Amino acid sequence: MADIKKGLAGVVVDYTAISKVNPETNSLLYRGYPVQELAATQPFEAVAYLMWNGELPTDQQLADLRATERAHRALTPEVKQAIDLLPTSAHPMDEVRTAVSAIGATETAGITNVLDAVGTPEENLERSVRLFAALPAIVAYGQRRRRGEEAVEPRDDLDYAANFLWMTFGEEADPVVVDAFNRSMILYAEHSFNASTFTARVVTSTLSDLYSAVVGAIGALKGPLHGGANEAVLHVFDEIGTADNVAPWLDEALAEKRKIMGFGHRVYKRGDSRVPTMKTALDTLVEHYDRPEVAALYDNLESEFVSRKGIYPNLDYPSGPAYNLMGFDTLTFTPLFVASRITGWTAHIIEQQGDNALIRPLSEYNGPDERHIEGYVPDA
Ligand code: ACO
């Protein structure tokens, strides 16, 4: 019998120089830098640069990236049209997936030979920066469209995080909120061979193009066992209601063998390295908005669940309520994850292209034995 590794658990499939997850030391490094140090000191644009180039930018390199990012912030007519064709009740992850697909179809229009669609490393870096620049407007437009609000044009005088909040809410965000949002973007940016990144690498390994790989990754991220959990955490908070309802709610949920969203991780078994940084950002927001009941519910659910199951929160647990406090609709949370993870995905796509091998594992057949169509006579 073959040695089946269900879910590829514990299987090392390739090298990567982009990030290192170490569950033993509970650490996460992006290109060698601890993520909490990056979150405390860098703007998200600098971390995006690091992801693609392997080093933090000089002042000039950061200014150049910011200039390119600002030049590609606005929604193009094609993308706006593609989104507007969808019902306003469409899930925003479907909207984002459609928008990226529309960008890909537009940017690769005219390529008539499938071998040319893959692009050079330089072209793919430029495509990555343009997607990074376009996603905030796509996410912000989606939320405003669902609320029946007019789109808000980007502001050239604001950095990535401040402009993202501006386009979503139509007002300048408080620096405390901008800082928490910037940190969340950095924490979500990259996490080695997670399900969506691996999907992007599988698509890339067939020599398909970067946009197709990102569309596949968005599909993988949507699921609640992966990125969809940040949305699902808020549904859990809504169900529980108040901190004093945690214990009875948990009794029932565990009796029904429900998975509690925002807890557990395939790699980290003693806590997610990103949680303390995001929890600090959440605490700042709780204080800023004067919403102590959110912290009470968060703390109660965490301590009850950890003491009963010994399973720790993952990044989606603090980021869900943090995005809620900032004013994002619950359905917009996973698209925010996309806007951040586009940096990690595209870095992996470029890395895969640089040393490609078709990803094609084997399976052990366990279906019916060979059988035949009655009356079938093979051609002589
Ligand atoms: N709630 C209840 N039980 C859980 C949870 C949870 N959140 N997570 C794990 N368990 C239990 C499982 O039921 C299983 O118990 P059993 O052995 O008695 O059957 C055991 O712990 C092992 O769980 P698996 O699901 O087999 O472990 P795996 O490594 O595949 O799970 C996963 C990782 C999918 C993330 C899981 O913990 C989960 O479903 N969590 C909830 C969804 C979630 O928060 N996802 C976000 C992931 S992080 C991110 O994308 C940023």
UniProtKB/TrEMBL annotation:
It comes from the Bacteria. Keywords: Transferase, Tricarboxylic acid cycle. Pathway: Carbohydrate metabolism; tricarboxylic acid cycle. It catalyses: oxaloacetate + acetyl-CoA + H2O = citrate + CoA + H(+). Pfam families: Citrate_synt. Coiled coil: none annotated. Gene3D superfamilies: Citrate Synthase, domain 1, Cytochrome P450-Terp, domain 2. Belongs to the citrate synthase family. This is Citrate synthase.
